[in-house]
Structures are given as structure tokens and as C-alpha cells.
Amino acid sequence: MLKDFVNSFEEVVARHAGNGAIAIVGHFNPDGDSVGSVTGMHYYLAEMGINSKVILPSSYPDYLSFLDKRSDYIVFTRDPEAAKAAIAEATLVICLDFNNLGRTEGLKDMIRESEAYKVLIDHHPNPERESFDLICSTVETSSTCELLFYVLMETKLVGNNIDNMPYNVVEGLATGMLTDTNNFKNSAIASTYQMASLVIRKGISLDDLGKRVFGSYSESRMRLMGEMLRNQMVILPDLGAAYMVLSKKIQQEYNYMRGDSEGFVNLPLLIDGVGVSALFTEDDDFIRVSLRSQGEVSVNALSNKYFNGGGHERASGGRLFIPVEEVPAYFESSLREFLKNR
Ligand code: 5GP
Ligand code: MN
For site-directed labelling of 99, which of 118, 231, 309, 333 has its Cα 20 to 30 A away? Predict the structure, then answer.
């Protein structure tokens, strides 16, 4: 099945390599899996002698900037004209790490209306199939980066030999695999460790990469984490849940930068009896929602129903359009209702 996809994919790429233009698109608020997978694809095509443009709907956190080696990834919110031009000229659009075009925010209508051939490689449930011409989608993988790793292993260029996979490709894909599994703490399966072993064979240290993406806190970020855990975390023992609200006021106090709260939502799950964790971050026009679970609660369904979003069974996100003060009551009542009706 994977081989069938790879055959079609290689044929499509070959068709657009000559007189076409290729755009590689990640999702809004790109994380390691998003930036890692677009990087892997970009450098695979480069190795094939094929130009492509990487387009991200919004900017990536600082700790991922090492992947954008030539600082030429186009960020829609920073340079909308360049992003629109790249989509307009594309004859092939490769979408990575999202299951519906809505996740490209400001670019969604343009991509939807574009007549370009559209490919999707992703690991979220229920992909929006009608929006794409060729799809490789499974939830049986740790990350889009892992899925793309095995796709590229099957290509003629790589021929199942890691020596033939360019270093920049492996580095990008290893980054997303590490961040989506939270350093092998969740959703790492046998194939993930097999990939890890090949990454190490390639000469990439997962210790160094892990240090780079998980262990390069600024002092203010570390103190913000302390503030959130000590003063903002609320436990709801009867619901087996915990939540934290990161208001604008706290963000200003701790010099908050994009990405500073990465991973915070996982921390309450370390507490015995906490199976669901939520982090609410006040943004300019909405509240960003981050949900995690362990055990059987589907935060994908929870987010679909109450938080205008979705994602995976145990990691999802969304948005709320209510004043920040109303978030605690809203979270508690919606989770209570959700658990009761399950
Ligand atoms: P995070 O909490 O790290 O921001 O997001 C966790 C997961 O939820 C991501 O892998 C992504 O797939 C999904 N996700 C985050 N935000 C949204 C959103 O606004 N809409 C949807 N559909 N999924 C989201
Ligand atoms: Mn992902």
C-alpha cells in the first residue's frame, strides 16, 4: 500500500518537476512535526534537482529555526503576497501534517480553489479526502515525519538505504518524530524506534537534537513554567482533569514568546489521577486551546464538540471565542457534560 502511494507520488513529482512549480505547505502554528516534514520534503526534492517553495501559514518558534537553513521558508502572516504568489504559481501542492485545509488558515480558500494537483501526507484521523488528489494517511505512526520517512525510504532515490537519504532530510524528519512523541514518551511504536535506529546510523545524535528542541529554555520560559505549575494549575479531582490559563497579563510578566508554553500541557498528566489536561492561552482575537489525555478520553472528540478544533485521540487543539475569565467555568462544564454523555 505504501509502495503504491510512493509509485504514484514519484510519478506526480516527475510530471511537475520540469515546467511546473511545487509548493510544500505546513499548518498554522507549525510545530516540530510540521516544520520537520516540510523540511524533509523540501530537501528530498532538492536532492532530486527539483526546486520547491515551503509555505507556512504562520511563523515557527525560535527553537525550530535551525531547520530553515536558508531562511527562505515563506510565512503567510509575515509575507502574505509572497505566500499567495507561491500558491498561485504552484502546479503541485504538497500538504503535510494536517487533515483539512482549514488548518492553513489564511491560505485555505486559495489552496481550495487552486487547480494545482494536491497531495496529502498526514497522520490525523478522518482526512478531508475530497480536497486532495493523492493521499497517504494513517494514524498508525508516531508522526507525519515518521510516515514521510518511510515514504522517502521507498523512493528510487533512497532505495531503502539510509545512506542515500540526504542528511538535511533525516535531520528534519527526526526533529518532528522527537517532538510529536515528546521525546519517545507517547505514541512511539516499533517503527518509530526502527526509524530512530536508522537516524542514529546516519550520524545524527538524538541526544543533541533532543537537547536542541526540548532543552533550550530561556530563564523567563523556565520561570513561566514555575508560575503556571505553582499558581495557575487547577485540579478537578472528580473529573480526573487539570487545566491552566495563560493570560495576556502573565505573558507580559514573563516576556512570553511563541513556543514558550510548548509541552506545558503535558505536565499535569504526571499527577496521579489526572487523565485530561488543558492549557488555554489568550491570543489577540481568541483563546488557543491545547488538550492532552491518557487513558480512554478522546480529546479529539472533546475538541470537536466544545473547542472548535480537533487533532488526535490523545492530543488535540482548538479555539475559544469567549473572555479569558470565562474559560475555567466553560472548561469544567463542557468536560463534565462530555464525560457524562460518553
Ligand atoms: P497543540 O496542543 O500541540 O497545539 O496541538 C495538538 C494537536 O492538535 C496538533 O497535532 C494538531 O493536530 C491539533 N490541533 C491543534 N490546534 C488545532 C486546531 O485549531 N484545529 C484542529 N482541527 N486541530 C488542531
Ligand atoms: Mn503531527
Answer: 333
Query: Reading across the β-sheet that carries 315-320, which strands appear in turn?
Result: 234-236, 241-246, 276-282, 287-293, 315-320, 310-311
Compute the distance between CA of residue 270 and CA of residue 27 in angstroms, rounded to an integer: 29
At 1 the pLDDT is 87
- Which of 75, 12, 62 minimizes the C-alpha distance to 217? 62
Ligand 1 center from residue 66 Cα (angstroms): 23
Q: Give pLDDT tens digits for 177-213.
A: 999 999 999 999 999 999 999 999 999 999 999 999 9
- Beta carbon of 261 within 6 Å of any ligand 1 atom: no
- Counting ligands in written order, which one lies closest to the CA of residue 143? 2
Contact between residue 93 and residue 87 where contact means Cβ atoms under 8 Å apart:
yes
Q: What is the pLDDT of residues 199-249, one digit of tens each?
A: 999 999 999 999 999 998 999 999 999 999 999 999 999 999 999 999 999
Q: How many CB atoms lie within 10 A of CB 235?
A: 15
Rounded to the nearest angstrom, the distance between the alpha carbon of 278 and the centre of ligand 1 is 12
Q: Does ligand 1 have an atom closer than 6 angstroms to the CB of 315?
A: yes
Cα 106 to middle of ligand 2, angstroms: 20
pLDDT cut 70: percent of the chain above it: 100
The string of pLDDT tens digits covering residues 133-143 is: 999 999 999 99
Best CA proximity match to 126, nearest among 335, 298, 2, 266:
298
- Judge if the beta carbon of residue 311 lies within 6 A of ligand 1: yes
